[in-house]
What we know:
mainly alpha
Amino acid sequence: MRPSRSSSDNISRSFASISVIHCATQHFTATIDDTLRPNPTIIARMTYEVLTALVAFALVSSITPGPNNLMLMASGVNFGALRTIPHALGVCVGFTVMVGLVGLGLMRIFDAVPYSHDILKIVSTLYLLYLAYKLATTSSLGGGSVQGEPMTFWQAVLFQWVNPKAWTMALTAMTVYAGSGSWQAVLLVTVVFGIVNAPSISVWVFAGDRLGQFLSTPSRLRAF
């Protein structure tokens, strides 16, 4: 029995409708895939922007006044840039290690011991007062005539753990720029601070070395 012409037309129209629906579905699926697929250009731009912001934050926080920079400047005044190098290296290495350890979860210890924050604040304040006293009682400049010795490498490394500004910098950097907690993000923040911190603190060392030429009397040195 031969199908009628109208039946053939209906079947043809049905197949045509199915083809249209299939093409439309494929187009919609492709559109969704293009929308959800990460755009390498956008990712690269976001990464560049985040890295630029991180470098800017590291530079501003590292080069602005704080316990480390003021102590390095005072050491440059009293002992000269050459004798202050171990102190500067200790600051750079100690702070970089501190940033990395904070990013790896060191703050969980402080969260587990609530009173540790208060203890750290008290110890930091007492130690800073002690250092201020030592600097204020320095009586002369130049060569071996200065009483006392510059801070050693390991003293500078250990000082970072009682330095309130160092803690603030490390916590802020890891919270803002390594919030994901991935080791890649922690490593990036740590490396950036290590690279930026060294030349930033060196500025204070050499500034102190130059300033020492003008602070030739005990009274001016104490005032500084």
